[in-house]
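Title: [Solved] Glutamate receptor ionotropic, delta-1 3D structure

Original question kept below for reference.
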Amino acid sequence: MDEGAMSVLLLLPLLGECTLVNCRRCYYAVPGDKLTVCLGNHSLCLHGDSRSRSGPANDPPCHLHPAAHTRRVKKNVLESRSTRWLVVTSTRDLTETLAKELREGTQVALVRREGPRLAQLYSSRVDPDGKIRFSFVGVWMGSGMDDLKRDLLPDLSHLYSNLNGRHLLVTTNNNWPFFRINTLTNGTVIPISGVDLQVINTLSQSLNFTYHLIRPPDGKWGGPQLDGSVTGLVGQVHRHEAHATLCELSITSTYSRETVVDFTVPYYMESTTLVSGAPKEKSRTFAVFSPFTIEVWLCIVVAVAAVGPFLYLVTRLLVHVLDHPDQPHYTPQELTFNMYRNLMVQNNLITTSSWVLKLIFFGWYLFSFYIYAMYSGTLTAVLAIPAFDKPIDSLQQLADARRRGYTIGTTRDSSFEETLKILKREYYVFINAQLNSVMKATQSGQRHKFHIGRETFLPQSYGIACSTGSPLRDAFSDILRRLSEGGLVYKWAGDEVAGGSSSNRAGKTTGPPAITVQHLQN
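Solution (posted by the thread starter after getting help):
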């Protein structure tokens, strides 16, 4: 059924048998006692002659009692906000028997026939005590509806804009910063703090309802399983054990949650990030070699080793080819040692009157000056500010870390608390939601021992899950949309981060060290 347009399905079991006829504006039924019901433009018309019907001649007969039909709707989870049921009957006690079979999400208008041209009209409502009852709407007396107290098919958005103090069951897990709860020995769940607690409290005030919290027995977020069962928070809502659930519940999930519950509009968007141990300080044992890379050091060694023999060849050419017999004779070893002395900023021991050798010495002195300046400056910085291993900030760096022997984990492998312990002692990268990672690391009191990646990916949205067909979904969505557009949910998240950090510092005698230049290099 298309959720965008309201449809009406009619059941008229007056004689235990009726024929469904497809009309352009509605579905109506023609029972055996010549009573036809048609709903056009949300107005009810009862006709006494079935000869005016139109539709397929071979439509199958309907033998279901309304109570049996609603049981089938419950069994197959066919509740829908866009589908209304109009039941026409002469049974007096149907308002009680049918109400017991209804579930929120099935809206029923009941026409109880009192005579040939007289019928009483009832509409199903969810009372503040949570029970579904039929309330009297008005009387039909042949020509129209007289003395209507309310709409036969009410506007659900208006009806659910005020729940009149109704009490709801909300299921959640202990999952700070979204929901921090305390479970007493008798099973009572006490809310303490969290982003989702602020959200449900705002909904409670805006829609005028009260609530109390419960927890799933398995402690999971859950979803539909291969064996057909539905676990965790989602399972409780699916089985109507709770009216709604919110607890960092992602709408975009590997589980097909949207097939078993109805989600509100997203009220919080979050991305995934990488969590790893804080970069460790590099050893200073070989700090003297750290200013240059291995490639640069190799080039310097080759240059020093080659410049001596090169100068020896030049001096020989000067003596034998260019006829400079006054040129002093030096061995290749002496020339190499002299060039090395120049690199170490020592004076030159070789004298010459040849401009060729003077130009070569000038080029070597310039090279030595640049090498010395870069090396001494970089070494000073390295010794003054310790160097750290490169952090894992992106998926590309994650792939490199994998090749270096890092282990990659997710929430399916272990709890985040256990993962924090692993991160401090092993080469491990954890993939988790960004806010949850920051808050858990802060809550541990050792935030400085963990690195939260700067790059985020795989955005996911969080919503409230309601029972299939529940009108609560649209009522919640209207409020959540305004909260999200106003930025209140993100403001509450920021407050939780700040509050968690300050309470953690106040509750511990020791904590992270003060920020230093070393942390700025991290």
